[in-house]
Amino acid sequence: MKLEVLGCSGGIGGSQSRTTSFLVDDDILVDCGTGVGDLTLDALCRIDHVFLTHAHLDHIAALPLLVDSTGELRARPLVVHALPETIAALQAHIFNWQIWPDFTRIPDPGAPFLRFEPLRVGEGVELGGRCVTALPASHTVPAVAYRLDSGRGQLVFSGDTAFSATLIDAINACPALRHLILETAFAEDQQALADASRHLCPSSAHAVLGRIAGDPVVHVTHLKPGAGERIMAGLQAGGCRLALRRLEQGEVLEF
């Protein structure tokens, strides 16, 4: 499998600050932040499945526009996989005819442009020999992490999360883990804000990494604009036996 980083910033501000969105092969999105908007229309039309970690705006911002731009060009609905609570939030607050049309009912309820598929923690979706599995996460709203399995290697994306022993256990249960994409949104001097918003800062990220049993490359994501250098300095100063680097927009991870 191949994961292309369309966006990995914790905010906006410049061409390299697209919010969270990963293109897996050519047909799967993991989260649907502002980075999706840089794809061509042809590339957008090849996306058949979207896996959302949670309902916060920076992770779903491009979804309404994606459906609207490609609906009539597609032979089948775009399928969005997410927790039931995430789907309920999207139906209540986005696809509600006030913010955006309800594309699960148009152009016809029997043949809509958009279809939601509830996905619970521990459940996986098989797609052509690949598997995407929801893992536990701990955030201010119901949220999941994801394990992507190619059959040859695995990648885990934490989504937005605070320290979570159950997520660590799920990561350690991956026998072929090559990549761990771990959010660290705030610098150490912003710890109070990180704790209140259920994100990681360097010390809490180290608490997670210190319990990882395998040997994946760790890619740090979701750094808040203006705090990136302080976040990475705090992570490097803490010491870590794992290879640790900042995830960059436009790069490709293979596994």
Can you describe what's shown?
- The protein has helices spanning 41-45, 57-60, 63-70, 84-93, 165-172, 191-196, 202-209, 228-238, and strands spanning 2-7, 21-24, 28-30, 49-51, 78-82, 114-118, 124-127, 130-136, 144-149, 154-157, 177-183, 217-221, 244-246, 252-254.
- The protein has one domain (2-254): Ribonuclease Z/Hydroxyacylglutathione hydrolase-like (Metallo-beta-lactamase, Chain A, 4-Layer Sandwich).
- It has eight helices and 14 strands.
- Helix 7 (202-209) crosses helix 8.
- Helix content is 24%, strand content 25%.
- The protein is globular and about 55 Å long.
- The mean pLDDT is 97.
- It has 255 residues and is of the alpha/beta class.
- It has a seven-stranded mixed β-sheet with strand order 6-5-4-3-2-1-14.
Please name the defining characteristics of this protein.
255 residues, 8 helices, globular, alpha/beta, Metallo-beta-lactamase, Chain A, 24% helix, 7-stranded mixed beta sheet
Q: Look at the structure and give the CATH class.
A: Alpha Beta
Query: In CATH, what is the homologous superfamily?
Result: Ribonuclease Z/Hydroxyacylglutathione hydrolase-like
Report the span from N to C terminus.
Answer: 5 Å
Q: Numbering strands along the chain, what is their spatial order in the largest sheet?
A: 6-5-4-3-2-1-14
Structure class:
alpha/beta
Rg calculated over all Cα atoms: 17 Å
- Reported CATH architecture: 4-Layer Sandwich
Helix-strand pattern, N to C?
A: EEEHEHHEHEEEEEHEHHEHEE
Share of helix, binned: 10-25%
Sheet-strand content, in percent, reads 25-35%
Low-confidence stretches: none
CATH topology: Metallo-beta-lactamase, Chain A
> What spatial form do the alpha-carbon principal axes imply?
globular
Main sheet summary? 7 strands, mixed
Whole-number mean pLDDT = 97
Count of structural domains: 1
**Tally of helical runs:** 8
SS elements, strand count: 14
